[in-house]
Amino acid sequence: MKKLLTLAALIMLCIATASARKGVVVAHYGSSNDETRALTINLITSEIRQAADSLIPVNEAYISPVVRKNMTRRGLESLSPVDAMLAQRAIGVDTLIVQPTLIIDGGEMAELTADVESLKPFFSTIILGKPLCYSPADFEQVTDILAAEPLDGCDAIIFVGHGNMLPSTATYTQLDYMLADRGLSDRHVSTIEGYPSVHATARQLERGQQRIKTVKLVPFLLVCGNHTLTDIAGEYSDALRSLGYEPRLLKRGLAELPAVRRLYVDRTMRLLQD
Fold first, then answer.
1. Chain-centre distance of CA 113, in angstroms?
2. With b meaning 16 or more CB within 10 Å and e meaning fewer, what string describes 140-178?
3. Would you say residue 9 has pLDDT above 50?
4. Is 65 helix (H, G, I), strand (E, B) or coil?
5. What is the Cα gyration radius of the chain?
């Protein structure tokens, strides 16, 4: 009888250990451009996988239905956040970290939060990480990266993000203020669809101490996709030209910078270790 009880205890211990298995879902907004994906968001996933214990499964999810549809049509795997989380549960993961690679706490973050909430009954623990810019400490780290961007012979730099019509568009204003607070009057943060707008940023250029002519446009977007190649290269640049400036676009996704990828890797590792 004693042996049977001991065996039962061992079985229960094995079950408990298996059910406590940790896993990670890296949730990207996504991009249909294979080249920029390989240089940016796929690299983030790869580096998280390398940093994590080899026994911890790490998979990707794509928040954008348009991106998923495009990738599926071309035979590429593209799980939704819900499907990626359920795939983790199917292999025995019970403690799940969901780390978004979003930049701000906007509409996509709200969608992901709802997905995570809907699957809480399936896990003992499920933790949703924060976007790139969330706490004041996050903003300071990102500002460090923006401050290190070289002028490359230009008079000023404008970091151009997507923006939105939600309160979270204030993220860009905060970064802009923090650059100014450091005395970096030749660097500004702007948006395509929110605030600061191109015209608000142009007014800041006009108020500067030096005459600004050439402006380096740096996408404040994780990937170098349609928003960079169409919106920033098109309407945003055209607006600056109409105001007498000479824009020079850097075609680079933010996540091509190792320092940016490291921020996502570090916060994922902290959540895994808690």
1. 15
2. ebbbebbeeeeeeebbbbbbbbbbbeeebbebbbebbeb
3. no
4. helix
5. 22
Q: In what order do the strands lie in the sheet with 214-219?
A: 187-191, 156-161, 214-219, 246-249
Which residue, among 139, 140, 137, 179, has the nearest Cα to 159 in the 3D structure? 179
Retrieve residue 266's tokens.
């570090």
Residue identified by tokens 């819900």 is 82
Q: Token digits for 106?
A: 């906007």
pLDDT tens figures, 30-40 = 999 999 999 99
Give the Cα separation of 112 and 107 in Å (integer). Answer: 9
Residue-wise pLDDT for 184-228, tens only, equals 999 999 999 999 999 999 999 998 767 899 999 999 999 999 899
**How far apart are the C-alpha atoms of 162 and 126, rounded to whole Å?**
29
Q: Which residues contact 144 (CB under 8 A, 6 or more apart)?
A: 259
Sequence-ordered list of residues with C-beta below 8 angstroms from that of 105, at least 6 positions apart, any chain: 130, 131, 133, 134, 168, 171
